[in-house]
Amino acid sequence: MARGFFKVPKAINEPVKGYAPGSPERAELLAMYKTMFNSNIDVPMHINGKEVRTGITKNITPPHDHKHVVGQYHTAEKKHVDEAISTALAAREAWSSVSWMERASIFLKAAELLAGPYRAKMNAATMIAQSKNVYQAEIDAACEMIDFFKFNVEYMTDIFKDQPTSSAGVWNRVEYRPLEGFVYAISPFNFTSIAANLPAAAALMGNVVVWKPSDHQAYSAQVIVDLFKEAGLPDGVINVVYGDPVMISDTVLASPYFSGLHFTGSTHVFKELWKQIGNNIHTYKTYPRIVGETGGKDFIWVHNSSNPLQVATAMTRGAFEYQGQKCSAASRSYIPASLWPDVKKHLIAQASELKMGSPEDTSNFINAVIHEGSFDKIASYIDAAKADKDAEIIIGGNHDKSVGYFIEPTVIVSNSPTYATMTTELFGPVMTVYVYEDADWEACLKLVDETTEYGLTGAIFSKDRYIVEKASKALENAAGNFYINDKPSGAVVGQQPFGGARASGTNDKAGSAQNLLRWTSVRLIKETFVTPTDYKYPFLG
Questions:
Q1: In total, how many domains does the chain have?
Q2: Cα 28 to chain centroid, rounded
Q3: Is residue 231 predicted with pLDDT exceeding 50?
Q4: Residues with Cβ within 8 Å of residue 255, at least 6 apart in sequence
Q5: What is the pLDDT of residue 7?
Q6: Shared-domain flag, residues 312 and 290
Q7: Do 224 and 346 lie in a common domain?
Q8: Considering the entire predicted model, what is its pTM?
Q9: Which of 293, 321, 408, 425 is catalytic?
Q10: Is 327 a catalytic residue?
Q11: N or C, which end of the chain is more exposed by having fewer CB within 10 Å?
Q12: What does the pLDDT look like over 45-60, one tens digit per residue?
């Protein structure tokens, strides 16, 4: 319950450090990168606060230098998953009874530790094992994670302040209880902040968690565990397991105490988990909460009233930052014929300046895609476009995995609005452009809306307010995060709550009170101060 005399610190977005040449933060981060790159980290699982090493390990290799091993992580057998579940449930009684203020203090402390002594380490781990450049690591692994912790605490206090009215002689109040059981968190490789937030959001609301990070994010996941431990998170509240995702999920979802899924990943996997939960529904003590953010085929639609340079810049940043591996990355654009020559000119000029290589060289805008499977899939679509009469590659098109999984920023122009790369989620640095006749702009909006199954992010460009209103209405279901005259990526916690619908997820908006409410079960308490002693109402006479 919130108390009127208690106020948490007001959440303010964490400032982004510049890492300019000669700056102290740049020197600190690059020194940390070099040390961690040349170390041999041994990442255990974490069950009830204990480090669990099975000896069944997999190597951690930087995507931009995949022959170099920076460490290994230990993977689970079924018994370890069972132990993670049982120890989480054992920790639940104590953790759920901890006051919300004490829970808040842990995550506020984690935010301050990350803003200071953990910042370089978290960023370096993200740069090494997830191949993010210094800026992308900073806005994700440092700033966004800090913002999640601070803003979630503020949202939690706002939730607890929401109380019902009471009539004379009666006090009505609600308790925001944790779910009865444990939450299963499955996090992706592409955002270290999301990996931290999925278990942390549930834990903040008093839940216990079994967390399966992406195998390709194990390095920064270990730093997150260290951060939580130093911040004072009790043993057993968040338990970490790695390994076979099918075995882990089968074990977790078979438990009668499974009470919620917090997921970010592929649409197919999420749908399969949902189906599995449905098949097991008679097993569970309570109806599980299912929260997921999944795939996207995010768009930029342009009207002929737009500024070509602004459009090209949004395409370059939106499509190629972090190698197009953001859930929100722009991957299909619709450009009016009258603007296309100028947009194309600016796009080619910008792309020609993009350097590609290791994140250690801070002049590199482009780094490697996450692993060989991703590389092979993206390369196959690029190679198919080279041979296809319906497509023309005007930028990039080359790829090389001899040292790292490097794919050039690539722009494909297709004469078909349903071409493969206009409809298929690739999760790589590939943008496909469809050029439409200016007069057909309304029909093109219909294409944008109906071409794919997704509804995550999208952007429109126009200087004409009537067009902006028309396009916003036409595309109201096409994107959960909708941007006007800006790229469709770069959501900031506290400013643009993130999530989409359709095949892109449940749209429960990470970084909002709406998401936190999903991890609570509300109890209404009515207390009557003077209890009636006569059953008769006045109408009886």
A1: 2
A2: 27
A3: yes
A4: 85, 181, 182, 283
A5: 74
A6: no
A7: no
A8: 0.96
A9: 293
A10: yes
A11: C
A12: 999 999 999 999 999 9
